[in-house]
Specification:
The structure holds 2 protein chains of 2 kinds. Chain A is mostly helical. Chain A contains 13 helices and no strands. The longest helix of chain A has 29 residues. Helix content of chain B is 72%, strand content 4%. Chain B has 11 helices and 4 strands. In chain B, the strands form 2 sheets. A two-stranded antiparallel ribbon of chain B has the order 1-4. The chains are: A mainly alpha, B mainly alpha. Chains A and B meet through helix 5, helix 10 and helix 12 of A and helix 4, helix 9 and helix 11 of B.
Chain lengths: 316, 293
């Protein structure tokens, strides 16, 4: 009974904390005390968290280095904007369409490429990401290199917050399920896990498709906030951006990815006027973290309610 | 037929450039199993050294190329010492991410100090002239690029096949542990490999400057990726494979721009890469090796 009570109370605690965060920020935005700059930063922060957590499932937990995440984001953004802008469907349909489109793209790309390993996979996904971008540049229906502009702004704090929570809950539940154990076993030793009867290809494709799907969600949110989407936004530098967050946070830590995404967004906003300096700092972070702490800042540890409980009661 | 031959000739000089860059990729991969993402950026640095040597010192193009090669050889060795050597025992993914970091660092440091704008390669450095032979137009810059690339490749082949250093390089890439036992200094051999690969990239950088007439801090990305595709096409780690792959990529690219849509040029390179990786991941010249548990 005690475990049962604990679980219930933990769940209620979590929901309460989330509702509290949501209400406070919602109140601040509605009362107009959040300036435009901070609102944009908050939006990028949420989108980056979704991107980092979804890529962390592929790179961190499954151990498959993917460098094409921006491509899936592009697919999500374009599909959702086409649905809402051209067909005038509701926002939720657009977002779901974007997710579905990105998931299908993830499946099409994942099935052939996930047979490859390590650096070959990295290059192949990079190639696919670039192919998506070049294709978008050549499709006149979606505006070619100029992209689509004049998109109605539909993304607001409620959508962002809901999407972030949904992404984290879904991916966290996958990781803590038997699927997650299979996925992590692939990262630890692919041959051993195959010998133990894990269908490695299936699980890799599953992780890839789920990761791509949430990248599509992030793309949809992005497109409906910044009025304009163009292929150039989703080039491989964007993929590297997301990679930096995952690597910095720790390969195999969702909370690490979240913290890193928030940190990188703040850094980006602070250095907005100096884009070159920002990229130099990114690059140095990548190199220094890899040399001195290759497992990332958090390693594969997570910050949970229990951690706070431990700190609270002073136990180690 | 005449047009096809013309396209093939145009492709040869571009292919020679890709082949030179691909050689660096393949040599580094062969010896430490690392895709040196920063290789395209070393080429960019080479192009800038060549540019400044011509525009400020007013040197001849060949002298500029030698300067660029020496500077980049040193530069490549320094990068290897600082960034890659500490990671020699780390996972390959960690090394790959570091290489991406080095690549970004070089691009944006160049942007920071030299501004992101394009620079026109001095026209006086190389006076272009077109010759017409049997109805085919050949530019002297194509001839220059092609011949200097071939000379560099012959020198490289000589170093790898005939000298002691080359023997050490082949030994380390075959089996590092055994090479250590035979008294070969692995660190020194790896440094030399980086030096040679970077020097070739620098020469290619100056050639890109002549070929496209402009240079910019991000010029290394796309040729770098295409040369990597060329290296994979020929079988990564195999030196003659990189040369053949480079020429094939160059010719393919000019054919696509000549007969199809030049906007698809970059997509085609990646399409080729993905096809090879799916059909024959070891490349044209590669041998299949079984997986060891």
């Amino acid at each position: 009974m005690k475990i049962f009570n604990n679980k219930i109370s933990q769940f209620i605690m979590r929901v309460l904390v989330l509702v509290l965060i949501f209400t406070i920020v919602q109140y601040l935005i509605a009362s107009g005390s959040v300036s435009r700059f901070y609102e944009i930063s908050l939006t990028s922060m949420c989108i980056n968290v979704i991107l980092a957590v979804s890529l962390s499932l592929i790179n961190g937990f499954t151990g498959q280095l993917s460098l094409g995440h921006a491509g899936f984001m592009a697919v999500g953004a374009y599909v959702s904007v086409v649905l809402t802008n051209y067909y005038e469907l509701p926002f939720i349909v657009g977002l779901l369409g974007g997710c579905l489109g990105a998931a299908i793209a993830g499946f099409i790309i994942g099935v052939p490429t996930l047979r490859l390993k390590g650096d070959y996979l990295a290059i192949a996904t990079l190639g696919f990401g670039e192919i998506i971008r070049v294709l978008l540049q050549n499709i006149d229906y979606v505006g070619g290199p100029a992209g689509i502009s004049g998109i109605a702004k539909m993304t607001n704090w409620a959508w962002l917050f809901g999407s972030v929570v949904l992404t984290i809950v879904v991916i966290q539940n996958i990781i803590n399920s038997s699927y997650g154990r299979a996925i992590i076993s692939i990262r630890e030793d692919e041959i051993a896990s195959e010998v133990m009867g894990v269908n490695t290809t299936n699980y890799k494709v599953l992780a890839f498709v789920v990761g791509a799907m949430f990248a599509g969600l992030a793309g949809g949110l992005y497109g409906h906030y910044f009025y304009i989407i163009k292929p150039e936004t989703f080039n491989f530098l964007k993929s590297f951006d997301i990679l930096v967050m995952v690597v910095l946070g720790g390969l195999g830590s969702t909370t690490g990815a979240i913290i890193a995404a928030v940190f990188i967004t703040v850094l980006t906003a602070a250095l907005q006027a100096y884009p070159a300096v920002r990229m130099i700092i990114y690059a140095l972070i990548l190199i220094i973290v890899m040399i001195y702490r290759p497992q990332g800042l958090m390693g594969n540890k997570e910050i949970t309610m229990k951690t706070f409980g431990r700190i609270w009661s002073g136990r180690k | 037929m005449l047009e096809l031959t013309q396209q093939l000739i145009n492709g040869l000089s571009l292919g020679a450039i890709y082949a030179l860059i691909a050689l660096g990729y393949t040599m580094v991969y062969g010896i430490i199993k690392l895709i040196n993402f920063a290789h395209g950026e070393i080429m960019m640095v080479g192009a800038y050294v060549g540019f400044f040597s011509i525009s400020i010192l007013g040197t001849h193009i060949i002298v500029a190329m030698l300067f660029a090669m020496i500077a980049c050889a040193i530069f490549g060795v320094i990068i290897e010492k600082i960034a890659y050597r500490p990671l020699r025992s780390a996972t390959r993914i960690a090394a790959l991410i570091t290489a991406i970091g080095v690549s970004l660092l070089l691009q944006y440091t160049t942007i920071f100090f030299l501004t992101p704008q394009q620079r026109i390669f001095p026209a006086t450095a190389f006076v272009t002239q077109d010759y017409v032979v049997w109805g085919l137009s050949i530019s002297n810059k194509d001839i220059f690029i092609f011949i200097s690339a071939i000379i560099l490749m012959i020198i490289l082949q000589y170093i790898i096949r005939r000298t002691k250093t080359g023997k050490a390089m082949r030994a380390v890439s075959l089996d590092r542990d055994a090479a250590v036992l035979m008294g070969i200094s692995v660190d020194r051999t790896i440094s030399i490999t980086f030096a040679i690969g970077s020097a070739l990239a620098a020469a290619a950088g100056v050639m890109v400057g002549i070929y496209y007439n402009t240079i910019n801090p991000l010029m290394g990305i796309i040729p770098g990726l295409k040369a990597f595709v060329a290296a994979v096409l020929g079988g990564i780690g195999i030196v003659p494979g990189a040369m053949v792959g480079g020429f094939l990529m160059g010719i393919l690219e000019t054919l696509v721009s000549g007969y199809g849509n030049s906007l698809y040029r970059d997509a085609v390179a990646f399409g080729v890469l993905i096809l090879i990786l799916i059909i024959k991941p070891t490349g044209l010249f590669g041998k299949n090796t079984g997986e060891k548990v």
